[in-house]
Amino acid sequence: MPAATNDPDLIHNSTRTTLSTNADPTGRAPARVMLRTSRLVILWLDGDVDVRFAAQEVDVTPRGRAAPRTDKR
Question: How far is CA 8 from the centre of its chain?
Answer without folding.
Answer: 26
